[in-house]
Amino acid sequence: MFRNRWGSCLLIFLLVLAFSPAMLFSGSTRASAVPSSESGSSKPVYHPGPLYEQFRQAAKEFHVPLTILLAVSYAETHWQDHHGKPSELNGYGLMHLADNPTNHSLPEASQLLGIPENQLKNDVKQNIRGGAAVLAQRAKELNQGKLPQDLAKWYTAVAAYSGLSSKLTAKWYADEVYSLINHGAYRLVDGKDMFIRPTRVIPDKGIYADVKAVQAAATPDYPYANWVAASSSNYTAANRVADGNSINYIIIHTTEGSYSGTISWFQNPQAQVSSHYVIRSSDGEITQMVQNKDIAWHAGNWDYNVHSIGIEHEGYVSDPSWFTDAMYRASASLTRWLCDKYGIPKDRSHIIGHNQVPGSTHTDPGSGWDWNYYMSLVNQSSSSTEIVVDNSNTSRVSVSGNWALSSWNSQKYGADYYYTTPQAVSEPVWFKFNVPSSGSYSVYAWWPADPGYNSNTPYIIRTSSGNQTVYANQQAGGGKWNYLGTFNLPAGDQYIVGVSRWTSGTGYVIADAVKLVKN
User: Fold this and answer.
1) What is the DSSP secondary-structure string of 283-313?
2) Pairing state of beta strands 417-420 and 509-511?
3) Is the separation of the CB atoms in 338 and 309 below 8 Å?
4) Residue 8, CB-side half-sphere exposure with 13 Å CA sphere
5) Structural contact between residues 455 and 506, judged by C-beta atoms closer than 8 angstroms
6) CB 222 within 8 A of CB 278
7) At 453, phi and psi to the nearest 5?
8) Spatial contact of 511 and 418, defined as CB atoms under 8 Å apart
9) Residue 385, pLDDT above cutoff 90
10) How would residue 5 be classed by pLDDT, with cut points 50, 70 and 90?
11) What is the spatial order of strands in the sheet that 509-511 belongs to?
12) What pLDDT is recorded for position 376?
């Protein structure tokens, strides 16, 4: 435990803190929402519900591997049906059954099952069946009327299921599905586990094996981007800023669909829409589609189109699980580069959401987009001091035996994390930092999220003027750095941030990793 004199004083101080009565422990945790393997087993015991069973039944009915069906759905929608609302590509439901110029899986599923299209849009079970039927049909078309017996040989059927117009984007789509199969996925849906157990498989890419990762005539402005040109029917050729049209804004968008699907759509001359950049959720990969000098059609306001750069982020406004730390970091690096190149102030008056464009009817990027975190990354220079302490660093973490280790939640930072139940006792996990100089630091915490975790977790920050407590909801914001605030910190090697279990919130309290960034 914490043995230095300051730590002892702090323990006493915490015991006499003027917590309100509401801060006392008020009930049991929602452990039922967490798989029984939260104790740290490497093979979690899942508790699937009716939705998982619907996938299993559809896979069995149409002889499609369950892993394929689940991975396609997760890649498309993260297992969310968006209440019958279509994606930007006019796709519906968990299987993204679509009807657009290049993808007619919705009417095809309707014909295969003899079910009205409207029912396929709104009935979760039938939507899953429709997706399985179309996948099986694609596999038969590509394998002389037979279904592949090897998981690796479903790759071409998955690529074809995407309905994307180019082999490149269809390949990216199938690669994403097989990455999910190899690495696994997990999500709690309606209080029940949805999951893909990791399965090692090297896909047989068939006709996609020789498709190049980027187009041969690659001309991205941003040096870390792929280049895939949008259709010339979807943007206005220009010569900014030489033509007198300054670039004053960065506009943040959400694709309302998949990364590969958005890229394919911008290539379609019927789309009449484009953006300069598209960013993938899983790893932050960036593809540029319109050169910076040209005017992309993304803002819904001509004046803002003329004077802005548009960045699309894979995902849905209603589901912030798409906004990963990799995506935030990649996007912030791009935005920082653009601001430096064109003299755009790095503030919220010039880096805006689509919803802030005058006259806009769009809501993206939505309330789930963490503007505080994003802007802190944008304003973080390459020379900024950044110090991370993970729970696994035993020389930098002080913890009692009443905290347990777990590796269950895939959103964790590093190999594992500490967890415990709420109690009205002063027993925090402390993170020790060697702060190089006193001054202003932004403080971030990382935790894996789950509805069974704590809704009001106290983080204690030792500032130059005394201790401050910030409360965080660990039921959301998992798998990324969450901004706790900016504080003046003292120099020296000492315990700076503690995660307390003294809370009125219900659910496990998580202590995973903490980061300081010098301002």
Assistant:
1) T--EEE-S-TTSEES-SSSHHHHHTEEEEEE
2) antiparallel
3) yes
4) 3
5) yes
6) no
7) -95, 180
8) yes
9) no
10) very low
11) 404-406, 417-420, 509-511
12) 86
**Residue-wise pLDDT tens digits, 209-224:** 988 765 555 578 998 9
Round to whole Å and give the CA distance between 199 and 181.
6
pLDDT at 393: 93
Residue of 310, 355, 352 whose CA lies nearest to 334? 310
Find the length of the chain: 519
Question: For tokens 């899983």, what's the residue?
Answer: 282
One-letter-per-residue 3-state SS of 331-349: HHHHHHHHHHHHCCCCCCC
Half-sphere exposure of 364 (CA within 13 A, CB side): 24
User: What is the average per-residue pLDDT within 419-430?
Assistant: 94
CA dihedral (232, 362, 356, 360) positive or negative? positive
At residue 169, the pLDDT reads 93
Mean pLDDT of the region 315-327: 91
Confidence of residue 312 (pLDDT cuts 50, 70, 90): very high
Q: Nearest 5°: CA angle at 365, between 363 and 369?
A: 130
What integer pLDDT is reported at residue 476 of this predicted model? 84
**Burial (CB count <10 Å: 0-12, 13-18, 19+), residue 360:** middle
